[in-house]
UniProtKB/TrEMBL annotation:
Lineage: Bacteria, Pseudomonadati, Pseudomonadota, Gammaproteobacteria, Vibrionales
GO MF annotations in UniProt: phosphorelay response regulator activity; transcription cis-regulatory region binding
GO biological process: regulation of DNA-templated transcription
InterPro entries: CheY-like_superfamily (IPR011006), OmpR/PhoB-type_DNA-bd (IPR001867), Sig_transdc_resp-reg_C-effctor (IPR016032), Sig_transdc_resp-reg_receiver (IPR001789), WalR-like (IPR039420), WH-like_DNA-bd_sf (IPR036388)
Keywords on record: DNA-binding, Phosphoprotein
Protein name in UniProt: Response regulator
Organism annotation: Photobacterium phosphoreum
Length: 225
């Protein structure tokens, strides 16, 4: 695992770097928003730990620019502001978690581990083609040749997660962890209903190819490639 820590407080930043390095986790660090954004845009990371109050470019603007650039690296916001609306704004801008200062290193590490279990997103592969079906993470579209398959946000997230892990069986719990934020839960029945709807939408089009979504009974779902 590789983390990017963007934090202007030198003592806190160094303590996080040392703590994660001692756990065998590789880290890059930035003390200001300008350097942090440059690193985040040009390097692959599993998770970014992002302070909001930064010199140069603030953390919320960094998060906004990352999402506008279709970079979906997991982001944990660190903030001294515990206001409920700030937490909501951070999550709506695309953060995966929000931790208020002061916090314990053990709690931050636990959140990093939990988020990493949601799967790895390849920030540099924006389209994936399997059996003629094209998934485009930039435009949030699934299509076959010139046929658009209109999916809801959660339906798209399910397919995106499975397309990014071809031939790997994913349980409904793993799918739920991946497509929900850190404070929500999507039930097994709801996920199965989404998958059923996806299949119906595909069958409603004149598509001769077989959609590669498979079910391993009792275990979960996978995309066959």
């Amino acid at each position: 695992m590789k983390l990017l820590i963007i934090e202007d407080s030198s003592p806190l930043r160094r303590s996080l770097v040392v703590g994660f390095n001692n756990l065998g986790i590789t880290t890059d660090e930035a003390s200001n928003g300008t350097d942090g954004l440059s690193l985040a845009l040009n390097n692959p990371y599993d998770i970014i730990i992002l302070d909001l109050m930064l010199p140069g470019i603030d953390g919320m603007e960094i998060l906004k620019q990352l999402r506008q650039s279709a970079i979906q690296t997991r982001v944990i916001i660190l903030s001294a502001n515990s206001q409920h609306q700030d937490r909501i704004n951070g999550l709506l801008q695309g953060a995966d978690d929000y931790l208020t200062k002061p916090f314990s290193f053990d709690e931050l590490h636990a959140r990093v581990v939990a988020i990493s279990r949601r799967g790895i997103i390849n920030n540099f592969t924006n389209t994936i083609t399997i059996n003629g079906f094209i998934l485009d993470s930039n435009t949030m579209r699934l299509r076959y040749e010139e046929i658009d398959i209109n999916l809801t946000p959660n339906e798209f997230k399910i397919i995106e997660y499975l397309f990014n892990h071809p031939n790997q069986v994913m349980s409904t719990a793993m799918i739920s962890d991946n497509i929900a934020n850190n404070f929500d839960y999507i039930s097994k029945n709801t996920i199965e209903a989404h998958i059923s709807t996806i299949r119906k939408k595909i069958k409603s089009h004149p598509i001769t190819a077989t959609f590669p979504l498979k079910n391993k009974r009792g275990f979960g779902y996978y995309i066959e490639n």
